[in-house]
Amino acid sequence: MGIFSVDGVSWSHSRALLRPSFDRANVSDLGQLEGFMQIFFSRINELPRQPLTHTRAVELQELFQCLTMDSSTDFLFGDPIGALASKKYTLGNGEMAFDKAFDIAQYGLAMRAPLSSFYWLYNGREFRKACSTARAQVAIYVSRALRKLNLAEKKSGEEGLGKKYVFLEELAERTQDPQVLQDQVLNVMLAGRDTTAALLSWTFLCLARNPEVYKKLRAEISAVVGVDEDARLPTQAELRSIQYLRWIIQEVLRLYPPVALNARRALHATTLPYGGGPDGNSPISIRKGERIVYSVFSLHRRTDLYGPDANEFRPERWGEEALRRIGWGWLPFNGGPRICLGQQMALTHASYFVTRMMQVYKEITPKDFALADDSYDTKLVMASGRGVHVFLF
Ligand code: HEM
């Protein structure tokens, strides 16, 4: 039972337990990310160049899933799983590695979600094996973190200086219950890994389809941190200063919110102010205990909020006065007490990866599939149903 799967008092305990670890995470330390970026580039460079155009054809979505698998396991456990480097992930060689187990387990959870209290009906052998493999691996990390904590207590005073931030170790300073630690880190992994990969994937699909946006963003990046041979690694402050990058990310999260559907159960009988009646303008009554599913995807495409071009990708809209007060009309990270704890981290990591990619590649063009209409693969997170097939130059 972790923060995602509990409600009420158990949820407040989880939130109070996890929050300080997020507050203390040093999101501006981008050095670690660059290591993964280098492996990412070398994976792309292994691909053959196309005759005539000299571009490289690549499917980015799967690579981003490997990249965020490595960056999440590094942040959470202090030990990147090596999904990018090993190729195990893409080749799927039958061996149940942590990354594969995690994906199968996550798929099973998505299948269980709509079954509600009949969730146990989805309980195949592969799913059970995947859950136990993922848990067993995390249990090893948990015992290591607890051992380290004991050692650090014995030699108090030595720790802290130049120490790499590891979420699990930080959390272990507040609870030493192995089951709680295991459940909570698996929940944070579930919350942060595929969501960030989806954001990156949709961003590059939008950039490939909109060459003028790519060009404009590359020019802004060039002015701040250089591109090609003049490129230098961006700091967090520099990333924040690239306004067009922020607008693009906001626009991608609007059109393609990774958490596209969400749900709540009513604690008391209540009414929603409108949405009922033949014209949708009457209140709707909600009984106590009733489950309400709502679509963030539809909210983000409402023409009364975003104008007649609500379905179009137009980052410039974020510079317009009308969107300054969008408030609850833009909810990719949700709002209120359960607002995403990793928002800052997700935005920083995504900005870093996008900037680094754009420093290296002059142009990105869509391969046939990327030009077709959108296709959605919606499980726990909404990914692109056809992947992100592009040519990089
Ligand atoms: C683009 C990336 C991300 C998106 C779109 C996103 C979106 C969301 C949303 C919509 C929720 C609310 C869920 C609900 O209402 O039930 C949420 C919660 C949460 N997110 Fe994120 N998230 C992202 C990245 C991350 C990252 C990187 C982490 C951590 C490393 C993270 C950690 C969490 C946690 C722990 C919660 C649970 C908060 C609670 O229930 O109190 N998220 N996220």
UniProtKB/TrEMBL annotation:
**Does Ubl conjugation count among this protein's keywords?**
no
Where would one find the signal peptide in this protein?
Answer: none
Q: Which cofactor does it need?
A: heme
- Binding positions for heme per the UniProt entry: C340
GO MF annotations for this entry? heme binding; iron ion binding; monooxygenase activity; oxidoreductase activity, acting on paired donors, with incorporation or reduction of molecular oxygen
UniProt KW keywords: Heme, Iron, Metal-binding, Monooxygenase, Oxidoreductase
Gene3D superfamilies in alphabetical order: Cytochrome P450
Family named by the database record: Belongs to the cytochrome P450 family.
Q: What protein does this entry describe?
A: Cytochrome P450
